[in-house]
């Protein structure tokens, strides 16, 4: 397994993650709608593509080619040549697509031009329609996550997944879908919140860092733009 972290395209997010997206594990980003999940997924993909490596991108909610062009800039067309995009129409098709990734991941694996990142945005978008199936739906989702984790370990690449949320009436807060299985199998988790017109990325779980670290950001044409903490903004120049 390569020990190199994959940059996300945001220095602030890389620092929050402890260096970037770690190979061999699943990193999960969850948050309410319009909190920046898809923007981060595309931004991290562009960063990987710029390094010359391939990206496998499964989008269950409709990939925005325009957003990709904005973040990638003038190199968008050239970078897109190494972007392998999958758009499942239902949860069963999502399962099949994930299981079929192995052939693409094994092609040129370990080479500088080989696969460098696997993204699923959002892992639970189509899962919502299966919730009435209860335990069966949860088992199928867990199966998908286990396959993704297997790819991360076998090919030594990061896997980045975004997750949707629901309101937990007991905690009176948004929590990620997928239950404890998805939470357990994701070794790094970042929670996104919307706060008075800005967003906040909060480290919820990490293998070597305590939770709670955060930074504020805004959505920008190039992806996300970190905002300076209020105490830094108000400091007098030395």
Helix content: 25-40%
**What is the name of the CATH superfamily?**
P-loop containing nucleotide triphosphate hydrolases
CATH third-tier fold name: Rossmann fold
Per DSSP, what share of the residues sits in E-state strands of 2 or more residues? 25-35%
Instruction: Describe the sheet with the most strands.
Output: 9 strands, mixed
CATH class: Alpha Beta
Shape: globular
Report the end-to-end length measured between terminal Cα atoms. 46 Å
How many strand segments?
11
CATH architecture classification = 3-Layer(aba) Sandwich
Q: Identify the strand order in the major beta sheet.
A: 3-2-4-5-1-8-9-10-11
Mean pLDDT: 90
Quickly count the domains. Answer: 1
Which structural class best describes the helix and strand composition? alpha/beta
How many distinct helices? 9
Tell me the Rg in angstroms.
17 Å
Order of helices and strands: HEHEHHEHHEHEEEHEEEEH
Uncertain segments of ≥5 residues (pLDDT<50)? 232-238
Summary of the model, kept short:
With about 240 residues, the chain is an alpha/beta fold.
Would you kindly provide a written description of the structure presented here, covering whatever features stand out?
- By secondary structure, the chain is α/β, with parallel strands linked by helices.
- The protein has a single domain, classed as 3-Layer(aba) Sandwich (Rossmann fold).
- The chain has helices at 11-16, 37-50, 65-72, 76-80, 91-99, 101-106, 135-155, 179-185, 230-233, and strands at residues 26-31, 54-59, 83-86, 115-121, 159-163, 165-168, 173-176, 186-195, 198-205, 214-220, 223-226.
- Strands 3-2-4-5-1-8-9-10-11 form a nine-stranded mixed sheet, with helices on both faces. Strands 6-7 form a two-stranded antiparallel sheet.
- Strand 9 (198-205) and strand 10 (214-220) form a beta hairpin.
- The radius of gyration is 17 Å and the shape is globular.
- Residues 232-238 have low confidence and may be disordered.
